[in-house]
Design goal:
The complex is a heterodimer of chains A (about 500) and B (about 80). Chain A contains 20 helices and four strands. Chain A is mainly α and about 500 residues long. In chain A, helix 3 packs parallel to helix 8 and helix 10 runs antiparallel to helix 11. Chain B is built from three helices and no strands. The radius of gyration of chain B is 23 Å and the shape is elongated. Chain B has about 80 residues and is an all-alpha fold. Classes of the chains: A mainly alpha (about 500), B mainly alpha (about 80). Chains A and B meet through helix 6, helix 7, helix 14, helix 15 and helix 18 of A and helix 1, helix 2 and helix 3 of B.
């Protein structure tokens, strides 16, 4: 039996190589050298390459105009030629084979995710092998280990694709963690697997790809009220919860405090991933924050609609309240739909506006961390160069992707349709990167390492206190915006 | 302190893994398909499919229903 892999932080392995000397001293690599060898920059290169390819194929694909029989509205439909080559296991119910292949019958669409899964596997294997090689590691060892890690990620995806599992918001992140944990806590993670256990690299590449989905133009989808509920309350709750964690609960780990505060106030798992990478949280901290978020999401998606109906709230107010408070995006839509069509539309749109906050949150947390939390010797504020040096560069790729694709979305012909065609491939790659990251976290984690983080139940108290504040403030702001100030003008 | 042989640890690990895999297979291949056909769960699955909602969506771009909501918003003046 091989040794287990040691636990570490969600920060680049460049750290070990001395690219981020801390405090301000020691030899540093030039920017060109860093761009060639650092993990952050390679996350940007790989993410950018994939985004450009996906965009070009979507942009140049033939357009088809469809007319809605009922409304008479015409819509442009674009199908990327890459679509059959990028896929993940599909939803299944009674026969596990259906997740990869099924003939269409009884109104059900035919499914073939085999070629798409193989396509994703080959693309990631090739791009990451190049990255590993250029960065000075052994590509052969990576290619020997990657199929096994990808297979584990596929198993996690198949588990999460069961219709019952999906119906109750049990996301793939949970199963990917579980699959990795089962291996590492039974036979132990073999050393030969280690070259492909690249948690941070997968997460950072996935985040750069996520940037293309953060379209700033969506920000005003609900007008001023949506911005107030999603962009005013959310940062207040995030900062208040973090301060509460530091000053009142006296959390031992600032990064755990920040990750829980962000996933609870912004949008669950995706915000937790982005924030954890920005503040270099430990992988156990990310696992804990996601576990808390998913547990409370399941409860809130059932309880909140009942409370809203019992209190006789309007669909708009109830939808806005749920959109601003339930962590997971899918759970918000499911809970909102129980109120009615308007409830679902308002809830989903408020959550979408909150989703867009991820980029700003990630950037601000990264700046706060390098300027305030990671101070140099003598507690002195670091210089601008030092801040630049320590700044997690993948965040720049994330923000740049968001800005560039927001501009493209707003300026090119059929921008929304091109983005939709591109998004199909982008979100699938991003999902695989995150799934591979969570499998890797599981492979690096020993159950015993998780227990100290529950010390005194502080993470739970932090989540409960933050979510209570979130519920109160969001309800107050939603009522003020949707029922008082903009009552006559808001229609989703 | 009791010393456990490497040999025993090795086989203990594989036994634990086999048990975990067996539990997963039983739950996913027998338990969940059975559960999917109970009235309460069946209704929920069908309702979610009809509404085009995936409760496990991590981001708004993963929600099929969001496309029609955004189209509706874009059409409005």
């Amino acid at each position: 039996m091989s040794d287990e892999i040691e636990s570490g932080e969600l920060e680049s392995d460049d750290h070990e190589e001395g690219s981020h000397p801390h405090p301000e001293s020691g030899s540093r690599r030039s920017l060109a050298e860093e761009m060639r060898t650092s993990e952050d920059w390679w996350a940007i290169w790989v993410g950018t390459f994939l985004l450009i390819i996906l965009f070009l194929f979507a942009w140049t694909a033939p357009r088809e105009t469809k007319t809605d029989v009922e409304s008479g509205n015409q819509t442009v439909v674009i199908d990327s030629p890459l679509k059959p080559w990028i896929a993940k296991p599909a939803t299944w119910e009674s026969n596990v084979i259906d997740t990869f292949y099924s003939e269409g019958s009884g109104g059900k669409k035919a499914v073939n995710t085999v070629t798409g899964t193989i396509g994703v596997f080959l693309t990631i294997a090739i791009l990451f092998a190049i990255a590993v090689k250029v960065r000075g590691h052994c590509a052969k060892q990576f290619l020997r280990a990657f199929p096994a890690v990808f297979l584990l990620a596929t198993v996690a995806y198949v588990m999460s694709a069961h219709s019952v599992v999906k119906a109750y918001n049990l996301e793939y992140a949970l199963w990917a963690l579980a699959v990795g944990l089962i291996i590492s806590n039974t036979i132990g993670t073999p050393n030969w697997l280690r070259p492909a256990v690249l948690t941070e690299f997968y997460i950072k590449t996935g985040l750069v790809m996520l940037g293309a989905e953060v379209l700033m133009g969506r920000l005003l989808a609900l007008g001023v009220p949506g911005v107030f509920v999603a962009w005013i309350v959310t940062p207040i709750v995030l900062i208040s919860t973090y301060v509460f964690g530091q000053k009142v609960l006296k959390m031992e780990s600032k990064s755990l405090n920040m990750v829980i505060s962000a996933d609870m106030s912004v949008c669950g798992v995706s915000a937790a991933i982005a924030t954890a990478a920005s503040c270099k949280a430990k992988k156990e901290e990310l696992s804990l924050a996601i576990g808390l978020s998913l547990s409370f999401t399941v409860v809130m998606m059932v309880v909140l609609p009942i409370v809203i109906k019992a209190l006789g709230m309007s669909e708009t107010l109830g939808g806005a309240w749920m959109g601003g408070t339930i962590d997971s995006t899918g759970a918000v839509a499911a809970a909102g739909a129980t109120l009615g069509e308007v409830g679902e539309e308002v809830a989903s749109t408020v959550k979408m506006i909150q989703n867009i906050l991820i980029g700003v949150t990630s950037f601000c947390v990264a700046v706060y961390w390098v300027t305030t939390v990671e101070k140099g010797e003598g507690n002195a504020r670091p210089s601008v160069m030092e801040i630049w040096y320590r700044f997690p560069k993948f965040v720049l790729g994330f923000v740049a992707a968001s800005v560039i694709f927001s501009i493209l979305h707003a300026t090119i012909t059929d921008g929304s349709e091109v983005m939709a065609a591109m998004k199909a491939g982008g979100k699938t790659f991003r999902g695989w990167f995150f799934c591979l990251a969570f499998v890797s976290i599981g492979l690096q984690t020993n159950f015993r390492e998780l227990f100290p983080y529950f010390k005194g139940g502080k993470p739970l108290w932090l989540y409960l206190a933050g979510q209570s504040l979130n519920l109160i403030l969001t309800l107050a702001m939603a009522w003020l915006m949707f029922e008082v100030v903009f009552k006559e003008t808001v229609t989703p | 302190m009791k010393r456990v042989s490497k040999h025993r640890l090795f086989y203990g690990g594989w036994t634990k893994l086999s048990v975990a895999v067996a539990v997963i297979l039983i739950i996913w291949l027998i338990g969940l398909p059975w559960l999917a056909n109970r009235a309460l769960v069946r209704n929920r699955i069908d309702w979610l499919a009809e509404e085009q909602i995936d409760p496990t969506a991590m981001f708004y771009t993963e929600l099929e229903s969001m496309d029609s909501i955004l189209r509706k918003i874009e059409r409005e003046p």
